[in-house]
Amino acid sequence: MDKETFEKHKPFAGEKKPSMLRRRVGHDYQSRRIYLITMTVEGRRPLLGTLAGNADAPDDSPEAPRVEPSPLGLEVQRCWFSIHDHYPEVEVLALQLMPDHLHGILFVTTQMEQHLGIVLKGFKAGCNKAYRQSPYAATLLQQRDAKAKDDRTHGYLWARGFNDHILEGAGELERWFHYLHDNPRRLSIRRSHPDYFRVSFGITIGGQSYAAIGNRFLLDSPEKVQVQCSRSLTAEEVAATVERLLTKARRGAVLVSPAISKGEQAAMRAALDARLPLIFLTPWGFNAFSRPGHQYYEACAEGRFLILAPWPHENQRLPLTRSMCLALNAMTATICQQ
């Protein structure tokens, strides 16, 4: 949808709701760009494969976490890698099949006559043909027929829509490849420690409500230390401050930080590297499907990390303002006083 049409319809759209499926306003989805695509199976059914391996095994080990595709998953793989055969302008760069969803990277190499949604609609149609011929379909279609006739739940392999990210900056593509490769390991870790990866809402601290991911018992620590570093500190002063904070954490304190300034970010990285307990306040809210960033998975799994989000989830990240920074620092101080 172009911006003019969006603005024209915006007054009649009602309340804006969080969604992982909303397209970027003003982007034509036909131009030369690279996209990270996520699709989920209708009802999040694990039809595409089975998680195997051990989360603790190294990457080069036969026991490294992986998804072993089902027959339907193999057909989904075939359909994904045949996208280029139907749309020569689209190069398939990667695919990571998961039990109930997929992540893939597509490169639109030149301006297309059709937009990306048409390309993915064709991919879904090919998958649905394979799905209808699979043993899953008959049972689930019977379940659907037992409900209301207009109920489309489980009528197709894929849920409606898709999520996309558009490549923007240097180094982002490499991070995408790593994200796809590491997905089975993160799923294995989540299954081993489910409580630490489940979003909790409505946690109230000092009158402020938070959503949380991680070990909430860190809030019960008798000693919590605020991480606050002025932007005016020299590199030597930052290093000394970080070492003082790590010394307190090694003695049992839990560090609490919004990681706004470079010094605070350095302290957070040092605490994570030293495997010390940390509470991180993020300005970016969670929805029910939110997960910690891949750099936080190990810390979450070991129970030494908690992420608190004081504000609701937004589909697009808003610029961090001075008033937001001051509010996060005030919340950090309150948490440390509890």
Produce the secondary structure layout.
Blueprint: H1 3-9, E1 33-40, E2 49-52, E3 66-69, H2 71-81, H3 83-86, E4 90-97, E5 101-108, H4 116-132, H5 135-145, E6 163-166, H6 172-192, E7 200-205, E8 208-214, E9 224-226, H7 235-250, E10 254-257, H8 262-273, E11 278-281, H9 297-301, E12 305-309, H10 322-337
Parallel strand pairs: 9-10, 10-11, 11-12
Antiparallel strand pairs: 1-5, 1-6, 2-3, 4-5, 7-8, 8-12
Helix pairs in contact: 2-4, 7-8
Structural class: alpha/beta
Order of helices and strands: HEEEHHEEHHEHEEEHEHEHEH
Q: Spans of 5+ residues with little confidence (pLDDT < 50)?
A: 16-20, 148-152
Number of helices: 10
Percentage of residues in helical conformation: 25-40%
Report the principal-axis shape.
elongated
> What's the arrangement of strands in the largest beta sheet?
7-8-12-11-10-9
Task: Provide structural commentary.
It contains ten helices and twelve strands. With 338 residues, the chain is α/β, with parallel strands linked by helices. It is elongated and about 60 Å long. It has helices at 3-9, 71-81, 83-86, 116-132, 135-145, 172-192, 235-250, 262-273, 297-301, 322-337; strands spanning 33-40, 49-52, 66-69, 90-97, 101-108, 163-166, 200-205, 208-214, 224-226, 254-257, 278-281, 305-309. A six-stranded mixed sheet has the order 7-8-12-11-10-9, sandwiched between helices. The longest helix is centred in the middle third of the chain and has 21 residues, at 172-192.
